[in-house]
Design brief:
7 helices; GTPase activity; GTP-binding; 27% helix; G protein activity; binds guanosine-5'-triphosphate; 256 residues; Rossmann fold; EC 3.6.5.2; seven-stranded mixed β-sheet; binds magnesium ion; metal-binding
């Protein structure tokens, strides 16, 4: 995990330094974009919607924070870019420095749900920065890379960390990414399923490259969070496990 560390320049939103939780250690740094302003990430419980402020242009009913976690190189940034922009970041791997975020508003059963998605650095040296953000996350997408056994073996350690720092009722989804790389695959789908079962997690395989199950992962989380907040007693409960099982597509469906 000792890769060259250079900030990426993707032109997305960046955390406002004034809104950072009291983190020890290195601060999230994106010199080209870091600024304070209306896009500053909120802390605390789900936010009620607000109309467009300061030219941000986002109108929504409710907002949630989602965090991407997992070893360096598993594809967290690529997954976020695929979801946000519908593109794949091919080319040289540039490791995330500190933490970054992007917003996306989804229509979930007629309600505008804003996801503020935090892209964390997988590198060990930024771990203390990440720790400070867990407590405000409503959902976590925990990724491993199906072509990298070490990243799969790290999942247990990530779960221990999540248990220590995240909210007890955080929504958690396990994702095995890079399934487009069939030749390089070393973690079988069944291994992912078995691990997920062991820890009672919903699980899907994804590809940031082809887009396989990427929208689904975020939509599933948005549906679960929205329901937790707005479900009428008479309404049937949204079943996240069943939803991802039913809607998830197999790796063989979408070769690049
Ligand atoms: N084939 C394939 N490559 C991918 C996929 N997702 C990411 N990659 C590649 O994997 C490398 C790492 O991707 P990133 O998204 O930067 O990884 P990361 O998890 O954000 O890494 P850190 O920022 O260091 O934590 C890059 O070279 C990507 O092009 C995928 O779904 N398929
Ligand atoms: Mg990254």
């Amino acid at each position: 995990m000792s890769r060259k560390k250079t900030p990426k320049s993707k032109g997305g939103s960046a955390p406002a330094t004034s809104a950072l939780p009291a983190a020890k250690g290195p601060r999230p740094v994106r010199p080209e974009t870091a600024r304070a302003g209306p896009e500053a990430p909120p802390n605390g419980p789900p936010q009620p919607g607000r109309s467009s402020l300061g030219g941000g242009g986002d109108i929504y009913d409710v907002a949630f924070k989602v965090m991407l976690v997992g070893d360096s190189g598993v594809g967290k940034t690529c997954l976020l870019v695929r979801f946000k922009d519908g593109a794949f970041l091919a080319g040289t791997f540039i490791s995330t420095v500190g933490i970054d975020f992007r917003n996306k508003i989804l229509d979930v059963d007629g309600m505008k749900v804003k996801l503020q998605i935090w892209d964390t650095a997988g590198q060990e040296r930024f771990r203390s920065v990440t720790h400070a953000y867990y407590r405000d996350a409503h959902a976590l997408l925990l990724l491993y890379d199906v072509t990298n056994k070490a990243s799969f073996d790290s999942i247990q350690a990530w779960l221990t960390e999540i248990q220590e720092y995240a909210q007890r009722d955080v929504v958690l989804l396990l994702l095995g990414n890079k399934v487009d790389s069939a030749q390089e695959r070393v973690v079988r789908r069944e291994d992912g399923e078995q691990l997920a079962k062991e820890f009672g997690l919903p699980f899907m395989e994804t590809s940031a490259r082809t887009g396989l199950n990427v929208d689904l992962a975020f939509t599933a989380v948005a549906k679960e969070l929205k329901q937790r907040l707005t479900k009428a007693p008479s309404e049937p409960r949204f079943q996240l496990h069943d939803y991802v099982k039913r809607e998830g597509r197999g790796a063989s469906c979408c070769r690049p």
